[in-house]
Amino acid sequence: MGTDTPRxxxxxxxxxxxxxxxxxxxxxxxxxxxxxxxxxxxxALFFMNACGVQLYGRMEWVFKxxxxxxxxxxxxxxxxxxxxxxxGRVNSNYEISPGYKPDGYFADDKHPAIAGTGxxxxxxx
Length: 125
Known about the structure:
Layout: H1 5-23, H2 34-50, H3 53-83, H4 93-96, E1 104-106, E2 112-115, H5 116-123
Antiparallel strand pairs: 1-2
Helix pairs in contact: 1-2
């Protein structure tokens, strides 16, 4: 393999990830086409890479904090919805039937496959 293999791999992965990101535009209410979204994303990537190192570093710093804030916001939103915020309470199967038996792991609901504490630990999975 030549020395151009990592460069070719990076170029191919950038295009693949850009196309994958534009596929999400099909789920948006205002459908403007995959071609336009691909062009906009590739143009944004080009300008991000064409700017200087200092500006690129600042953009990466902003994107890092944006991802952290979105992740924390999503976690808080999930906790709030589970706690009852919204039109109704969200129930899961594990609240109704926890999925494990307190006296061990049962393979067929009659005979314990693994009894005792080990069965209780393994019953969680």
